[in-house]
Amino acid sequence: MRTIVKGKNFDVPDADRRYAQLKLRRLERLLDDRSDALVELSVEHHKNLEESHIVEVTLVIHGRPLRGVARASTHHAAVDTVVDKLERRAVDFKEKPRNRSRPLEEKSLLRALADGTAEPEQDAAGIVKVKRFAIEPMFEEDAVARMEELGHSFFIFVNAENEHVAVLYRRRDGAYGLIEPSVGGVYTKGGAPGRR
User: Fold this and answer.
1) Domains and CATH numbers, the chain
2) Would you write out the chain's pLDDT as a tens digit for each of its 196 residues?
3) Which end of the chain is more exposed for a tag (fewer CB within 10 A), N or C?
4) What is the rounded distance in angstroms from the CA atom of residue 143 to the CA atom of residue 164?
5) For the whole model, what pTM was predicted?
């Protein structure tokens, strides 16, 4: 298995690169010799320390991507977590029959992923996952606290002030944004117009 380790907006230290390559060797027994792995390390400085180091791994098995993500206080800890996750998923992946009617070209997929020009979970069949959950009315401050508690970058809730569905999200600058959909209503652009 060939392993490509790259940093997202930073140079990966040699020790982290070697550690990731060493740990991913655990998966070789589950994969064939044509499988490749792309490991992307990143750091989010506005997150709490326990989740600031992120490791994303994409394996290409029989032309299909298998992806895992982990967050931890160090890249080494995140690599350990994501390899454990992927090991379990790779066993399931090999045991379950897959629809192979549209095989992807492994090298071109990895190249596109490495260049950032393709999404790992993208599938020509359309929606690949549907998630349903109950949402509760809450105030914006409570939604911010709940989003932080979950460690997510966005949070969907019903605003208790106006009973409308809203999407809270973290901006790149660390501040928060709020999307308030309006069916057939007036579109407002930028800033916080109409907020009281």
Assistant:
1) 2-115 (3.30.160.100), 131-196 (3.30.505.50)
2) 778 899 988 889 999 999 998 898 888 777 766 677 889 999 887 657 778 888 998 887 766 777 888 888 899 999 999 998 888 877 766 665 554 444 445 556 556 655 655 554 544 456 767 777 777 788 998 888 888 877 788 889 998 888 888 999 988 888 899 998 877 666 555 555 444 4
3) C
4) 13
5) 0.48
